[in-house]
Structures are given as C-alpha cells and as structure tokens.
C-alpha cells in the first residue's frame, strides 16, 4: 500500500479516536478504541479523569503517550495485539489499576515503575519478547494472575507458568498459577545460576502386542526376546541419548500397556512436554484405525494448553493451533519384515500435522532401529522440543532431583516428612520452594506428588510406575469381578507386586478416587468396598426401550459427537453422578439416573457419540436432571485440551425431529434472538430459542452476572462479533447471585458429592453464582489462605455436620469460627446440613462467636433437613437430600432478592 494511503488510514484512525475521546468526555467511565487502526494514541486521552476502563486492543501502537499516567481512576487497561516496544514510566502512576492486558506486543523489558501498581491483580504479558523481568515486579503484593506464556527467553517452563489466560478468565476451567511461585523460580535461576535439564519424557503407545516393549529393548539395549511378555501397566526405564547435538539427553521411557481396559488411565500420565512414539503393526488390518485412535488420544490429552499461537483472530488471547499445541509424534511401523504396515502417510500428516516422521522397524532383525534413534536424537534440538529439554534448572533444584533419582533405587515412595528432609539436605529449606520443586518434578514424571489433595499430600512417589502398575492391577482385578473391589482383597492384589504396607493400600485407593476411577460403596469410613466402573460388564441391562419410545414433549435429548470418545469418560461420569444412579443400571458404556420423578439415560451409542435422554411428566424435574447430566458431561469435556466435540439437542419441527447445535441456540439467545434457524428435510425453519434451552435450565441460570471483571467485559465485546459501532454492546445480565462455601470433613466426602449434584441443579436454575470447597484448590496455591479468602467472600456457608467434622480442630477454629463471626454480624448465612446424630447444637453454641451472646443456643443457625433430622436416618436417602435442596432453594431465593 502506498505511504500516502497508509498515512491517510492512520490519520483517519487518529481522528476517530479524538472523536470518541471527546464523546466520552471528562465524566465517561468506559472507552473502546479497539480495532480502529491506531498508530498513535492522542495525548488528549489524559483529559478523561473519570475513565475506569480503556480498551486499545487490535491496533498498531508502538508506544503510549506519557499522558496515560493521568488516568488516575483507571482500573482496567487492555492493549492486546499491538506493537508496543516499551511501556512509559508513567504507567506506574496508575495506582487504581487492577487489570493490565498486554498480550501480543513486542515488549522486551518492563519499567521498574511496574512495581508501583500496588492494586494490580491480573497482569497478562503473554506472547511478547521479554528477555528479563525487573526485581520490582515482586512488589505486586495483590497479584493473583501473572501470565508470561510465549516469552521463551525468560526460560520459564510451562509447569511453572500454569494455565493460560483463556482457561482462567474466559472458560473458567482453571485457577491461575501462583505469581509468587513464578517469580520465585525466575529469580532463583538468576541468583543461583542454572544448568540445562537435558531430560525428556518419551512415551510409547499403541495396541497390545504391537511390540512396544521389544522396540524399547532394541532401541535402548540392542537386545531382542522373541518370548517377550506383554506389558501389564507401564514399564519405565532411562535411556541416555548420546547421539544428540550438544550434551546427551536422558529420556525417561514410558512403555504403556495396550489393553483396552487400561486406556482410560493413560490420560493421567500423558503430557504435552513429551515426545511420543506410536507403534503400529499390520495385525488384523487395523493399522489405520489404530493410528486414528491413538493420535486423537495424544492430541486430546497431550495438547499444550499454554501454547499461544496467533489464530485466525489475532486478538483472541489463548487461541491455539493444533499443530503447535499437540506434542510431536514419530510413527514406528513395526514388525515390517513380517508384513508391510499399510497406512496413508500423507493423509495422516494432513490430519495430524504434529507427526514428525515415519520409520519402518523390525525388532527381530533390527531394521530401522538406528533410524528411529537418529530421529529421536534430532528431535531433542528441534524448535518444538528444545525449550523443554534444554531449559535452565536452578542448581539447588537439580540437586534435589538427583537425590530423588538416587533414592529411587531403594524405595518406591517417601513420607511427607522425609521429602522435606531430602530437600533440606540439598539446600532447599523453604517449604514453599520445596513444594514448587515437587510440583515441577511431578509434571516431568520424575516423582509424583499430589500436594493439592489433602488425602494424598502425605506421600511423594519416587517411582511413577509404582502408581501406574498398582492402579492397573486394581482395575484389571475389578474387571474380573464385574467392577467390584473389596478392601479384604487389597493385600493379595497389591502384595503380589511387592506392596505390603496397609497405609499405602489406602493411599492407592484414595488415588483411584482422585482419578475418578473408583468410588466407595456404602457409608462406612474407611470404605470396605468400591465400584470400579472401568470393570463393569459391557452388556446394557433390559428395560431401556422406554427412553426411545417417550414422545418428544416428555423428553429432553442431547447428543455429543467426538472424533473418538475419550477413554474412560463414561466411567468418570458414573463416578461423579453415582449418588443418583438407579441400582443395577450401570454398565461399561452407560448408566441410568433418577431424580424425583425424572429419569435419565446416559450412554455411548457408538465409538464417537454419547446420548443423554431425560424423561418424565414433571417438566421441572426433567429439566433439573437433564441440565445436571449436561453440566457433568461438559465439565468432563472441558478437562481435555483441544477436544473437538459437537453438542446438539433434539428439536421438533412439524413432525420432523432435528438435531440443533446447543452453542447456536445459546449465542442466539445472548444476541437477543427469539428464533433460531434450523435445517429440515422440508427446508429451513425456525424454533423458539428460549423454549429449547429451557429444557436444560432456566434463563436466569444462563444469564451471567452484572458484575464482571474489566477483561471479561472487554473480551466479550471485542470477540462475540456483535460489537456496536462506536461503543459497547449492551447485553441483559442477571442480578448478583449468592456465593457458597462448603465446609466438611474428608471422611464425609461421599456426602459432598451428593450435595454438589444438587447445588449444580440450583446453579443451572439461577440461584447460585459459585460453589467453593477445598477440592477447588489448585496445585501450588496456599490452601489455608484460599480457604480464608473464600469464607470471607461467601454469602452462604454450608457445614456438612458430623461427629468427625465437629471433632476437627481445623474446621472448628479456621472455618466454623470465622463463618459464625460473619453470621453474628449478618454478613453471611450459615446452613448446617446434619449428616448423622451428633452434638452439633452444643458445639455451635459453645463456639467463640456465640458463647458470649445472651442465650447463644437461640443464635444457632437453622439446620437442614427439616428439624435437623440427620440424612442417614432417612430410609430413602434422596428424600433427605430433596429436603435439603428445597430448603436451600427457599433460602437462596430470599437471599438473592437482598443482594445488591
């Protein structure tokens, strides 16, 4: 384009900015200057003294005027996708700023004045060119989210950076990494120096009997055993790759079992910081189908959620390309001397561009093994892999890692105290730093630690195959017994593999529960029996024809279409919803739930489709159950990076049943459309948008709250394709909804799961904004601080009340006391839910906030179920939970009307 035309466009954009600044005026609160082609921001911006939100995204700004520092009232400043090379020191004068978005610029450094932004809570610096961070950034005491992805010269691994912005603030599927941990790691590298890690995880996957173990033996030791037994779980070994450019690389080799019953557990050990070898053979002419299955699995579970690659919309934070987000895969066409493996290589490369090569191998003759080694060594210095392999590791942290590798030779796990001692002996004495080291080593697969889970934090697993091997054995044992697993069987099942410590038997079962691979049966604690859904029989029970025969006016139907249903997804759904399951209506690919007078069938009908059918005469009950099932399936889908799934609902047009995309209905409603166009055999037609969505929740439940963070508001207005000319689109939003905090003893976790199902229904119907309990704590978070902050923000504090809960010192002192203090002041409502007979009234009355009041027993909060009748005394437990749900609904309705 000629320079005169460029200048003309820039001047036009400048004039448009001046017009909007003038229109906003000195009393304006929000100003949108995004996407107008600005190359220079007018200094008149400094006149907007009342401005609180400013959006400058999607322009061509290379600098900001010093007048930006005059916006003393500014709380949200978004400058995504510009060309900023530096920030002016005047940025430090924005003392009210809480959110600063700088994604997609060309910043190489930050001014020291950044440390003056004492109110800042979210700072997004993704996809810049930062080479250093100023020490003053550590002064941002209120910082909650720090995003530095896409700045490779900072040397910050993805495990330290945590989730990307989109996961945290857009999709709300994750919590941000602790900014202190990020900065501690960065400055530790600066002060201690660092050495290259020179390690990588190498995972072999493929069908059983494909020859993965033989391939590892030939590749690592150049040996071959024609009678090699099939891997039972995951076999691990270390391989020093000496053919790499530069220093050798140690590959932690994971050989995954190929049996179908174990595939669903693989997702807990697949990672984006991994190189994969997919092993295919021509067995049963299944190579093409196997390739499709495993490549989709790797793409889903190994997707790098932290990858930030410019997509079609450069202004969208966190947009990812599948090619860059998925981990590299080498396809080994094995046993090729016996039969040439037939796959369409070009077609696979087109569909899965993260494939980096194909190698024909044969373990018996050794053909292709040297080529495979060479490809793997070359990959270590490939631009996609080198940042993982050669990343700098603080020297003291390296010492801890080396000590763990030495300890692995003599023991499979360490106690919490021994882990602390091991770190201290190597010079890492700060408990926070010890936890950071633990989290990083966990992700690398060197040693596993689930420090975020109070049930599991007391042990560090030194040998990852100790976890995988025992979990796979438990699953296979349960599969031989129709899914049942008894405590009395644990010694024989686990002892056969060398684990005789009963405490570690409990640890493994708690781990199975965490993986959502098992749930306890009955109400005893500790559990005596579990159901492992992965071991359920394949055949569905009789009596399901009714769901297909129910007329549309008495049924709500959903269909989820996947490239391939992720292994174990139905099993996870069963674990999550088991309190509502009908007895004897669970099988490997489905379940039936019941709630009040409604029933729901959830099942996989093929390798690519899951269907939900909720039936019942009572419209409200049917809606509640259908919405619950949808919420749980969508929650499971959201856990998987890059999952390509299409959600549809069945609508009736005339006499024809048509499947319509749920996102289309939802977007139309957000845009105020009352009708949605659908395609039928007779041509296009329209259906009532609200009516179809109301099958799964109320309109109030779908409406977002009025109070939003500046970034969320700007993001929606910029990227929903309905931005009005010259200003913000006005959308209808709901009034504030109550926040709920749940306090409970971990011995009562089975009750927490049931309560969560009922709270999900209330949330779908618009009664709740957010539910929080300690299972929401993310790795690396200060769990005590998080709990206190959530209690302080809650409108309703629910106490799952039992003898164990009342006997807990932490619950009494750190949860009940501050909650009752807010109860006495009228700042929050306390709701005890009585699980069993216990001295709860006396305990509440004797607590510090109540005991000094006149007649403290009269200030004890009202309990649910009615009259404080314990849940476990109801002959039908769901009758008790129904009373709880109805009582909470009445309370929340009243409370919501009072919130401002």
What's this model, at a glance?
The chain has 900 residues and is α/β, with parallel strands linked by helices. Helices cover 36% and strands 18% of the residues.
Major sheet details = 7 strands, antiparallel
Q: State the helicity in percent bands.
A: 25-40%
CATH topology of the largest domain: Rossmann fold
Strand content: 15-25%
Question: What's the level 1 CATH class of the largest domain?
Answer: Alpha Beta
CATH architecture field of the largest domain: 3-Layer(aba) Sandwich
Count of separate structural domains: 5
Secondary structure tally: strands? 32
Q: How many helical elements?
A: 31
Shape: globular
Mean pLDDT: 85
Spans of at least 5 consecutive residues with low confidence: 1-5, 308-323, 717-730
**CA radius of gyration:** 29 Å
Report strand order across the widest sheet.
Answer: 21-22-23-24-20-25-26
Can you tell me about this structure?
With 900 residues, the protein is of the alpha/beta class. It has five domains: 3-177, Ribonuclease Inhibitor (Leucine-rich repeat, LRR (right-handed beta-alpha superhelix), Alpha-Beta Horseshoe), CATH 3.80.10; 198-389, P-loop containing nucleotide triphosphate hydrolases (Rossmann fold, 3-Layer(aba) Sandwich); 394-438 and 448-519, no CATH class; 545-702, TATA-Binding Protein (2-Layer Sandwich), CATH 3.30.310; 739-898, Toll/interleukin-1 receptor homology (TIR) domain (Rossmann fold). It is 36% helix and 18% strand. The chain contains 31 helices and 32 strands. Strands 21-22-23-24-20-25-26 form a seven-stranded antiparallel beta sheet. Strands 1-2-3-4-5-6 form a six-stranded parallel beta sheet. Helix 20 (619-638) packs across helix 25. The longest helix has 22 residues, at 3-24. The two termini are 53 Å apart. Mean pLDDT is 85; it is low at 1-5, 308-323 and 717-730.
């Amino acid at each position: 384009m000629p320079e005169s035309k460029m200048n003309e466009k820039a001047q036009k954009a400048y004039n448009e900015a001046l017009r909007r600044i003038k229109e906003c005026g000195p009393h304006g609160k929000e100003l949108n200057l995004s996407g107008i082609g600005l190359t220079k921001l007018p200094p008149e911006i400094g006149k907007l003294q009342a401005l609180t939100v400013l959006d400058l995204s999607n322009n061509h700004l290379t600098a900001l005027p010093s007048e930006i520092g005059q916006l003393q009232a500014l709380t949200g400043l978004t400058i995504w996708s510009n060309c900023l090379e530096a920030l002016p020191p005047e940025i430090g004068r924005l003392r009210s700023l809480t959110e600063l978005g700088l994604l997609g610029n060309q910043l190489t450094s930050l001014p020291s004045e950044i440390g003056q932004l004492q109110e800042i809570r979210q700072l997004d610096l993704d996809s810049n060119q930062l080479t250093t961070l100023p020490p003053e950034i550590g002064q941002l005491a209120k910082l909650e989210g720090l995003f530095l992805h896409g700045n490779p010269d900072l040397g910050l691994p993805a495990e330290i950076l945590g989730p990307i912005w989109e996961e945290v603030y857009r999709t709300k599927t994750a919590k941000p990494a602790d900014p202190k941990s990020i900065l501690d790691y960065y400055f530790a590298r600066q002060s201690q120096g660092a050495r290259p890690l020179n390690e990588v995880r190498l995972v072999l996957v493929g069908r059983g009997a494909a020859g993965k173990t033989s391939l590892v033996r030939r590749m690592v030791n150049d040996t071959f055993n024609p009678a090699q037994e099939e891997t039972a779980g995951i076999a691990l070994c270390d391989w020093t790759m000496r053919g790499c450019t530069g220093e050798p690389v140690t590959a932690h080799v994971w050989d995954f079992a190929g049996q179908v019953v174990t595939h669903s557990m693989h997702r807990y050990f697949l990672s984006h910081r991994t190189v994969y070898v997919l092993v295919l053979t021509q067995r049963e002419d299944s190579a093409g189908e196997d390739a499709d299955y495993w490549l989709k699995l790797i793409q889903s579970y190994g997707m790098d959620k932290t990858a930030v690659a410019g997509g079609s919309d450069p202004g969208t934070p966190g947009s990812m390309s599948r090619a860059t987000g998925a981990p590299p895969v080498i396809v080994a066409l094995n046993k090729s001397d016996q039969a040439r493996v037939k796959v369409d290589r070009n077609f696979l490369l087109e569909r899965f561009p993260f494939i980096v090569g194909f190698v024909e191998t044969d373990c018996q003759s050794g053909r292709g093994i040297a080529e495979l080694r060479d490809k793997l060594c070359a990959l270590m210095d490939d631009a996609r892999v080198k940042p993982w392999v050669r990343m700098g590791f603080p020297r003291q942290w390296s010492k801890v890692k080396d000590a763990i590798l030495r300890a692995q030779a003599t023991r499979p796990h360490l106690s919490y105290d021994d882990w602390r001692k091991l770190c201290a002996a190597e010079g890492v004495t700060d408990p926070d730093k010890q936890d950071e080291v633990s989290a990083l080593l966990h992700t690398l697969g060197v040693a596993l630690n689930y420090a975020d889970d109070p049930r599991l934090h007391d042990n560090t697993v030194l040998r990852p195959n100790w976890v995988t091997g025992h979990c796979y054995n438990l699953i296979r044992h349960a599969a031989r017994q129709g899914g049942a697993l008894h405590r009395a069987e644990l010694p024989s099942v686990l002892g056969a593999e060398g684990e005789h410590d009963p405490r570690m038997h409990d640890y493994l079962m708690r781990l199975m529960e965490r993986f959502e691979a098992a749930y306890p049966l009955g109400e005893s604690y500790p559990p005596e029996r579990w159901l492992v859904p992965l071991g359920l029989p394949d055949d569905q029970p009789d009596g399901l024809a009714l769901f297909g025969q129910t007329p549309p006016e008495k049924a709500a139907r959903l269909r989820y279409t996947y490239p391939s249903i992720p292994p174990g997804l139905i099993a996870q759904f069963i674990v999550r919803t088991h309190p509502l399951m009908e007895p004897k209506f669970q099988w490997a690919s489905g379940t039936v739930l019941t709630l009040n007078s409604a029933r729901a069938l959830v099942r996989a009908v093929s390798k690519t489709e899951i269907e939900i059918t909720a039936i019942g005469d009572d419209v409200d009950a049917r809606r509640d159950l259908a919405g619950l099932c949808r919420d749980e399936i969508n929650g499971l889908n959201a856990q998987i990076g890059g999952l390509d799934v299409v959600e549809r609902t069945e609508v009736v047009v005339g006499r024809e049943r048509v499947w319509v995309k749920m996102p289309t209905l939802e977007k139309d409603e957000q845009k105020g459309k009352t009708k949605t166009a659908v395609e039928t055999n007779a041509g296009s037609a329209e259906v009532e948008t609200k009516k179809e969505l109301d099958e799964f929740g109320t309109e109030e439940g779908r409406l977002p709250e009025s109070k939003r963070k500046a970034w969320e508001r700007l993001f929606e207005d910029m990227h929903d394709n309905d931005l009005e000319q010259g200003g913000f689109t006005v959308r209808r939003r709901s009034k504030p909804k109550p926040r709920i905090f749940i306090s409970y003893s971990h011995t009562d976790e089975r009750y927490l799961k049931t309560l969560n199902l009922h709270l999900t229904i209330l949330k779908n119907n618009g009664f709740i904004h957010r539910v929080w309990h300690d299972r929401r704590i993310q790795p690396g978070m200060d769990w005590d601080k998080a709990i206190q902050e959530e209690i302080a923000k809650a409108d309703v504090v629910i106490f799952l009340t039992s003898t164990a809960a009342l006997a807990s010192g932490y619950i009494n002192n750190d949860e009940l006391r501050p909650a009752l203090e807010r109860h006495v002041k009228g700042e929050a409502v306390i709701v005890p839910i009585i699980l069993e007979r216990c001295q709860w009234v006396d305990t509440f009355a004797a607590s510090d906030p109540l005991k000094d009041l006149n007649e403290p027993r009269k200030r004890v909060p009202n309990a649910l179920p009615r009259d404080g009748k314990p849940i476990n005394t109801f002959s039908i437990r769901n009758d008790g939970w129904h009373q709880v749900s109805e009582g909470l609904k009445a309370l929340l309705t009243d409370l919501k009307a009072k919130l401002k």
